[in-house]
Amino acid sequence: MTAISKILIANRGEIALRVLRACKELGIATVAVHSTADANAMHVRLADESVCIGPPPSRDSYLNIHQIVAACEITGADAVHPGYGFLSENAKFADILDAHGITFIGPTAEHIRLMGDKITAKKTAVELGIPVVPGSAGEVLPENALEIAREIGFPVLIKATAGGGGRGMKVAKSEEDLEEAVSTARSEALAAFGNDAVYMEKYLGKPRHIEVQIVGDGAGNAIHLGERDCSLQRRHQKVWEEANSPALNVEQRMNIGQICADAMKKMKYRGAGTIEFLYENGEFYFIEMNTRLQVEHPITEAITGIDLVHEQIRVASGAGLSVTQDEIVFSGHAIECRINAEDPRTFVPSPGTITHFHAPGGLGVRVDSGAYAGYKIPPYYDSLIGKLIVHGRTRVECMMRLRRVLDEFVVDGIKTTLPLFQDLVSNQDIANGDYDIHWLEKYLAETSA
Ligand code: ADP
């Protein structure tokens, strides 16, 4: 066991704060790193120590591996928690920390690499007994695209091998669209990831996005913590998430959960991870695995009472998981709303100064946010300024509570996505849990004048 006594949090915003809270509860000292734009941020104020690692652009600060390793050396941090985004799925970063004798709180570099390449990830999923979306066996080139697409059957989806955030993804409805879809997907992928490799999948018409949370101890033990339904998306980005999925019954939940946990046992996976599926007509189709903590992890925490960051730190230090599968009790229903500093209809970012801020409270309410009155949102980063997580004994109770809580939440001075959630919580389809991955885009198109 490698005891961890000081963790450097290589992130910012609400996730840096969330990791810091877990460290404090475990009696572990914390180091915040920050860019010059974040000198007054909450994660910096609440950490035991802080180090400025560079100017505002992420590539010069939060993505600057040299500066982060130097900050570990200066402060004597023996471990790094990467949060999500930034360096959380960067295998080279994990290798460099390892070479410096610093514990990376996450999976092995080998597993990050394996799942980071989507073609290899799909092949691995098949080997591990996880059902996948029908598609090309490997990379698709302009010259073989038509043949492969005919085999799969139209419509098809062209996806970037190195993909993320829905970039480099194009639908081809028919043969006429194919050439352009492949070439735009390739150039988008090259621009976003420096890698133009693409592959092809059957395009599913009305799927839900359902993902399974897993945690492994690296020694062949792994558990699942049920699923999250993240079907409400705009431009392939999640907006509202729920646990459990309104579409699954207990048997389906435990079946897919067990398939994932068994796969992670076989891999000897270490750390938290999420196995993402599309779900249509009772079938699950693997799309990717994220080898990190996800933005929406708190809804899983709400229905299980298990702190996922505590588990990550435990397994990174070799202490193993704190619970067995049989001890996990799923209780009630939770919904997360992502509060972005954006126009609630066009999603155009709205940086600026928050003039008033009042977070709601009461039973079953959690707000993860580094925002406060007077906080100036820097224009350089992601527009997520907070997450509202509401828990109830049933989905109905959760929705009623969410409606109450949204009315209480005050964020003035900037535009936020809060008004969108007020609309959604009153919508009949949402109340019925009757939506797929296209529902939100259609709703926005229909209701925006
Ligand atoms: P990324 O890594 O870019 O987020 P994913 O593979 O996770 O890419 O897919 C993101 C989203 O794109 C999914 O949640 C879903 O909405 C849509 N999507 C992905 N694959 C398919 C598919 N085969 N058919 C239909 N929609 C898909």
Please outline the helices and strands:
Blueprint: E1 6-9, H1 13-25, E2 29-35, H2 42-46, E3 49-54, H3 65-75, E4 79-81, H4 91-99, E5 103-104, H5 109-116, H6 118-127, H7 145-152, E6 156-160, E7 170-172, H8 175-193, E8 198-202, E9 208-217, E10 222-234, E11 237-243, H9 250-267, E12 270-280, E13 283-290, H10 297-304, H11 308-316, E14 333-340, E15 352-353, E16 356-358, E17 365-369, E18 376-377, E19 384-392, H12 395-408, E20 410-412, H13 418-425, H14 428-432, H15 439-447
Parallel strand pairs: 1-2, 1-4, 2-3, 4-5
Antiparallel strand pairs: 6-7, 6-8, 9-10, 9-12, 10-11, 11-14, 12-13, 14-19, 15-18, 16-20, 17-19
Helix pairs in contact: 4-5, 7-8, 12-13
Bound molecules: adenosine-5'-diphosphate.
Residues 133, 157, 163-166, 169, 201-204, 207, 209, 233, 236, 276, 278, 287-288, 437 line the site of adenosine-5'-diphosphate.
